[in-house]
């Protein structure tokens, strides 16, 4: 189930882009030699993701954007777990910052962004105003409204 000719490159490209952003932040805050080391780590990670995505495994299929429905569910559950871990980490860091008398508003902003993204995602991917409950299946699977499977 290939989405495009270059779908295998999406995950490594996003990883490399995020790593480049982190390397820029490291360069601004610490030193540019540390930023080069950080970029090298990001490049190694993106390369590993690319080769892992070429493997004939469930993880490889998910990383290369060529998964079937079961693998999509596994990827969705992994994403859900990662989000829960990020929310937990933000709450813990917020508590530590408050106990250390530091500002906590940056962490609160992150939680608000997560909440807004959740509701935007619900609107964009799951709810189209159909009260019968078939709206989510219709919008995600592309079935005409009168042919939505039960």
Summary, kept brief:
This protein has 150 residues and is mainly α.
What's the helix and strand layout?
Elements: H1 10-29, H2 32-53, H3 58-63, H4 69-99, H5 105-125, H6 135-141
Helix pairs in contact: 1-2, 4-5
Characterise the protein shown here.
With 150 residues, the protein is mostly helical. Helices cover 71% and strands 0% of the residues. The protein has six helices and no strands. The protein has helices at 10-29, 32-53, 58-63, 69-99, 105-125, 135-141.
Q: Which keywords apply here?
A:
150 residues; 6 helices
Describe the biggest sheet?
Answer: none
Low-confidence stretches: 135-139
Shape category: flat
Number of strands: 0
* % residues in beta strands: under 5%
**Overall helicity:** over 70%
Structural class assignment: mainly alpha
Determine Rg (CA atoms, Å). 20 Å
Contiguous helical run count: 6
* Mean pLDDT across residues: 82
Distance between the termini: 23 Å
Question: Order of helices and strands, N to C?
Answer: HHHHHH
